[in-house]
Design a protein that fits this description.
single chain; about 425 residues; mainly alpha; three-stranded mixed sheet; 18 helices; about 50% helix; binds D-mannonic acid
């Protein structure tokens, strides 16, 4: 706000940096500071689209089933005091209710997060919260509000103090909130905007009838590999994705992982998944970005279902082996246990961090019991996976390998065997 909504986007590729000052923000409201101001803006009839980028956990849903988590503290809060909501679904529902009561057409909700079927998922969660308040409101949201799906892709590590200093030096003035990312970007949007939309295609977006193949490709190939590399790379002492993916052992592991993922991905028209994977590796290796493995490791309980587990289900159903996948899950399990390979404490950030650590501690030193304790989390693994013996066996084996060899040597072993 003090910079009139102006901020710099710095795109970096190896030793090249390009700066662009973005002037598209015309005002700011901070929901936790002033939810009423945000609700006023959302009920303004001139507002036709509400887009959201609030990370996976911001939707208060059960990651395995995609249903609203009705026991979530923020959802309980928003049901108790619906006029002053604090969750994203709570704000959407209250704003939509106010618009409906005032006879204003509903805005289109544009989710830009890495959720599976993101539009449909947010539609389901919002309609359910609406129905819990008033069945008529829930039915109206389900029937009248558009929730187009999207696939948004650009690697954007969290901004650091060094980024601020370097960008201020290059720009010649201070910017308190620059954004640093790769040059690559892709935005695919389902073209369903009942009140109209800006011509985003002018800026390079692709408008399509069905986002699903783009989304599945990105979530499974990019984000799946990102999460795998985050846990294993972190455990192996790699601070960034660039370090980990420039390590030949992990590059070979990634190739093996992509070979397991690709057959379970319906390629969008005209896309060759081998080329896509090669491009991903080059993007991961971009040393100009310091994308911390720790950052991507965050919120694994919210990410694993759509990034890795759904793909694993497909492979298991076809009777195919899953050694690279299993090692990624074992890496996650070790990571959320809270102790690194050097014995140092890991700062695990995840809504389920405490119950996960407690369950793993209660399981004691037996690796098989540790795996069972982790797979018992149905919000992550669903009601099914923990009972699939081929799945359990693969995770037990990978966990054993990881404990014996450490992440790097286990990745090498899995790649050699695979
Ligand atoms: C990353 C994503 O933080 C994470 O979990 O996997 O933010 C990733 O960088 C983006 O989805 C790339 O488009």
């Amino acid at each position: 706000a003090p910079q009139d909504g102006l901020y710099t986007v710095a795109t970096r590729e190896d030793d090249r940096q390009e700066l662009r000052v973005i002037g598209s923000l015309c005002g700011l409201h901070v929901a936790p500071e002033d939810p009423a101001a945000l609700l006023r803006a959302m009920t303004d009839p001139r507002i036709r689209i509400v887009s959201l980028t609030v990370t996976e956990k911001g939707y208060c849903h059960d990651p395995a089933s995609g249903a609203l988590d009705e026991a979530h503290p923020d959802i309980r809060h928003d049901l108790a005091t619906p006029g002053a909501p604090r969750s994203a679904p709570g704000l959407l529902v209250e704003a939509l209710r106010l618009r409906r009561a005032a006879g204003i057409a509903p805005f289109t909700v544009l989710c830009c997060d890495n959720l599976p079927a993101n539009g449909a998922t947010v539609g389901r969660v919002t309609a359910r919260l609406g129905a819990l308040r008033d069945p008529g409101l829930g039915a109206w949201i389900a029937g009248e509000v558009a929730f187009p799906g999207t696939m948004v892709d650009r690697i954007v590590p969290a901004t650091t103090a060094e980024d601020r200093a370097a960008i201020a030096a290059a720009l010649g003035c201070d910017d308190a909130w620059p954004v640093v990312g790769e040059a690559f970007s892709q935005w695919v949007i389902e073209d369903h905007f009942p009140l109209g939309r800006p011509a985003w295609e002018i800026g390079g977006a692709t408008l399509v009838a069905d986002v699903a193949p783009f989304e599945l490709m990105k979530l499974r190939m990019l984000n799946g590999a990102h999460s795998a590399l985050a846990y294993l790379g972190y455990l192996a002492g790699h601070e960034t994705v660039a370090e980990a993916s420039n390590d030949p052992v992990f590059a070979a592991y990634l190739h093996g992982l992509w070979a397991e993922i690709a057959p379970a991905v319906p390629a969008p028209p005209g896309v060759d998944l081998r080329d896509y994977a090669a491009r991903l590796l080059a993007r991961f290796r971009n040393r100009a970005l310091r994308h911390r493995t720790w950052q991507i490791a965050m919120d694994g309980s919210q990410k694993l279902p759509q990034r890795l587990l759904e793909t694993m289900r497909t492979r298991l159903a076809g009777g195919q082996p899953i050694p690279h996948f299993a090692l990624a899950i074992a890496g996650w399990l070790r990571y959320v246990g809270g102790k690194g390979e050097d014995g140092a404490t890991i700062d695990v950030r995840d809504p389920l961090a405490v119950p996960l650590r407690q369950a793993l501690e209660a399981a004691g030193p037996d690796p098989v019991r540790q795996v069972e304790a982790a797979l018992g989390f149905e919000a992550i693994f669903g009601h099914d996976l923990g009972r699939v013996s081929a799945f359990r066996a693969a995770i037990v084996e990978a966990h054993g390998l990881l404990l014996r060899l450490g992440a790097r040597e286990a990745a090498r072993a899995v790649t050699l065997l695979g």
